[in-house]
Amino acid sequence: MIASSLRSSMEIHRTLGFSLFISLSLFHLSIASSFSPIDHYLIDCGSSKPTTVNIDNRRFTGDSSELGSQFLSSTRTISLTDSNPSPSSSPIYHTARVFTRPSKYLFKIRDKGTHLVRLHFHRIDSSNFDLCDSQFHVSANGYVLLNNFTVMNIQKPRIKDFMIWVDSEELIVTFTPSKESKFAFVNAIEVISAPKDLIADVAMLVNSQKTVTINGLMKNSLETVYRVTVGGPKVTPFNDSLWRTWVPDEEFLKSSDGSKSIYFSGRIRYQMGGASREVGPDNVYNSARVISSSNDVIPHLNISWEFPVVGGYKYLVRMHFCDIASVSLGLLKFNVYVNGNSAYENLDLSAITNWALASPFYADFVVDMESSGVLTVSVGPSKMSMPHTIDAILNGVEIMKMNNSMGSLDGLVCVESILKSWPRRNAGAVVPLIAAVCLLVIASFVMHRRWVGVRDSVAWSPLPMHVSEISLKSGIQRSLAKV
């Protein structure tokens, strides 16, 4: 009976047509190696020496050093050092680079494709600048990343995490003060070429009317708004091959009655074609929240998480799954919901992972949030769930904002309008210079007219070319004799 049920499950799965966005070809077990990006720039802004970050032992290059200065293409910038740094804060937050006019960092790109761009912002104590007065825009290769950004009322460091498609030989990150009276700053910048499997080009668009396949996701810019590990503790950059931070899910958990968190101490079985360690680290997949039935009754409940989001954007919702709870294959089947709409029915993890437990994969869904509100993800039992088994599971979730039609991740503004709105600081000196030049031109014109007028008032004709010099002298002498 179980075998028949499993065959039926596999057949249903084939008819769903989700093979375009979920890993199905998991035939070979792979041994994950440490990720070594081709493009890997770590810049400690405002520093003249290298800085090693304690949490993950990464070494940042100071942009005031000989090696680091090659990335900063702008002049007349200001380097700040915290006069009273906190001993517990990362050393990359002890300095900052301040910009009083549009300024750029240029990074040579050898590996075209998706790149991780992380910007670090933190207020520091300085007698010259109060970073609370900063207000600025940040753009990169035609995309607006931040619009009128400020650190006012922000006490802790802010890390803004983006993924940008780069098909040129340079990635240019531009900082533009929003007003002439304001300024921009940054503490550190990371530019890292992403693994090729980090962003899939295909996902499922989910709404109340239908669920359809959409393409072309790779060439969008994305901002990671939430990165959450479900059922487990915080995952730090030290435990993530892409140096990411995953926060616990308790803050976002809406309903968990009848569910429980679990932890798995065994080996996570990464497979070719499935989620890699770069997509999700072991520490995300070895914990989860599950719904389980302890008797013949299947619970009629879902586990739900809520994420406040800004309207006017599409969001890429990535849900991470790894069956670390089932005692046997083919027992776990459940439904997945996004914003209350069905995103996947009768999800059979055994069939998807080529009949392997503890083997991870992820599913990407796109939702259009026309207005600000709450984005909800849920998992729960399906009609094919079985009693005395695990009836739903989720290991992790990521919410990524997609750029709008103007190429912006922060408001209805484009890069061109930001650059055009910047006031020209030299206008005060240029205007008097132009006025002086105009006066000189007018004076020259008047003098020329006067000279022409005097010349035209005297009868004058050109000397005939056939009159000899002797004849001319004789004529002059006769005229004088008559006088």
Automatic annotation (TrEMBL):
Residues 43-402 form the Malectin-like domain. Its main location: membrane. GO terms for cellular component: membrane. It comes from the Eukaryota. It is a single-pass type I membrane protein. Residues 1-32 form the signal peptide. Gene3D superfamilies: Galactose-binding lectin. GO terms for molecular function: ATP binding; protein serine/threonine kinase activity; transmembrane receptor protein tyrosine kinase activity. Keywords: ATP-binding, Glycoprotein, Kinase, Membrane, Nucleotide-binding, Serine/threonine-protein kinase, Signal, Transferase, Transmembrane, Transmembrane helix. It is found in: Membrane. The chain crosses the membrane at residues 427-447. PANTHER family: OS03G0124300 PROTEIN-RELATED (PTHR34590), RECEPTOR-LIKE KINASE (PTHR34590:SF6). This is Malectin-like domain-containing protein. It comes from Camellia sinensis var. sinensis. The lineage of its organism: Eukaryota, Viridiplantae, Streptophyta, Embryophyta, Tracheophyta.
